Amino acid sequence: MEEETGIIDNNEDKITELQNKLSELEKQLSESESKLKDTYDRLLRSEADFQNLKKRTEKEKEDTRKYALQEAIIGILNVLDHIERGIKAYKESEKETLPKEEVLKGIELIYKDLKDVLSAHGLCEIECLGQEFDPFYHEALATVCSEETDNNKVVEEFQKGYILNDRVIRPSRVKVTKNE
């Protein structure tokens, strides 16, 4: 009987130990579940934040595309106003004809205003006359033999070329020497 009592006491100790271990494991499980829930909630918030950021970025990109030329257009509208005033003044002029110099001066002022607006937005002309032909900047429309000029030099410009913020948007159309 003593033996049985010893076994029972030993079993009770083991049961108590196992119950304590079970309680500890249940506590750890509860903490892990709580951490997992917190992590999942943070993940959901992060996903929502990401989706909101994505939508906001798309909207900003769309607005940028939509209104990218606004500043340039406003400058061009000022030039358009000059042209309209010139047309109105010409029509209201009591003279049959205006002096050629006055008309030319008005056109040159409008041309300068337009160039200034475009230049302010990063547009510049490609300088080509007398330059070495470069297919990146020039488009050869014609060639000419000339002993007076070095080979492969631009001798005539048919149409101006332009660079917009370091990118060629239209090459100069030119005539090039070929001394062969």
Structure description:
By secondary structure, the protein is of the alpha+beta class. It folds into three domains: 1-67; 69-121; 123-180, Roll (Nucleotide Exchange Factor Grpe, Chain A, domain 2). The chain is built from three helices and six strands; from the N terminus they run αααββββββ. The protein has a three-stranded antiparallel beta sheet. Helix 2 runs antiparallel to helix 3 (100-120). The protein is elongated, with a radius of gyration of 41 Å. It starts with a helix and ends with a strand. The mean pLDDT is 88.
> What average pLDDT do the residues reach?
88
How many helices in DSSP terms?
A: 3
Rg result: 41 Å
What string, H for helix and E for strand, traces the elements in order? HHHEEEEEE
Whole-number tally of structural domains: 3
Task: Tell me the layout of helices and strands.
Layout: H1 2-67, H2 70-92, H3 100-120, E1 123-125, E2 138-144, E3 154-159, E4 162-164, E5 167-170, E6 172-177
Parallel strand pairs: 2-6
Antiparallel strand pairs: 1-4, 3-6, 4-5
Helix pairs in contact: 2-3
Key traits:
single chain; 180 residues; alpha+beta; Nucleotide Exchange Factor Grpe, Chain A, domain 2; 3 domains; 3-stranded antiparallel β-sheet; 3-stranded mixed β-sheet
